[in-house]
Amino acid sequence: YEAFMAQGGQRVATVLTYLSDCGEEGGGTHFPHADLEVRPRKGRALVFFPGFADGSLDPMAWHEALPAKQTKWVAQVWVRQARSPDPMLHKVRSMLDHGG
User: Fold this and answer.
1) How many other C-beta atoms are found inside a 10 Å radius of the C-beta of residue 57?
2) How far apart are CA 53 and CA 14, in angstroms?
3) Which of 10, 12, 15, 43 is nearest to 29 (CA)?
4) How far apart are CA 80 and CA 82, in angstroms?
5) C-alpha–C-alpha distance, residues 44 and 21, integer Å
6) What separation, in Å, do the N-terminal and C-terminal C-alpha atoms of the chain show?
7) What integer pLDDT is reported at residue 56 of this predicted model?
8) Quick count: other Cβ atoms within 10 Å of Cβ 6?
9) For the whole model, what pTM was predicted?
10) Each residue's pLDDT tens digit, 61-91
11) How far is residue 29's CA from residue 41's CA, in Å, rounded to a whole number?
């Protein structure tokens, strides 16, 4: 539990930005409990909420990346319950705040 909280706790929001198309087959993001598949389209973002603010998981948000038949590029951002005390993250933020 301590290691989990050291990472900022549960993920409460996820943003997937598709950086490439995958053609007409394969490469989608599949939500089996919601019977939903999202097709990757370059420049589009998918936002979903895998957990609640209290740390419990939402089973409807369980997802998987389907095998891609072409190269697939995705940028992912996780929003967690709390700010991460990670010292490296603090250093990066400090560098950005002070111009390098």
Assistant:
1) 12
2) 13
3) 15
4) 6
5) 10
6) 34
7) 84
8) 12
9) 0.71
10) 999 999 999 889 999 998 887 776 665 665 6
11) 11
Give me the count of residues in the chain. Answer: 100
CA 47/CA 33 separation, integer angstroms: 17
Place of tokens 């409990």: 33
Structural contact between residues 40 and 20, judged by C-beta atoms closer than 8 angstroms: yes
* CB contact set of 18 (below 8 Å; sequence gap of 6+): 40, 41, 42, 43, 44, 45, 46, 72, 73, 74
SS (H, E, C) the chain: CHHHHHCCCCEEEEEEEECCCECECECCEEEHHHCEEECCCCCCEEEECCECCCCCECHHHCCEECCECCCCCEEEEEEECCCCCCHHHHHHHHHHHCCC
Tokens for 36? 């939903």
- Show the tokens assigned to 35: 């019977």
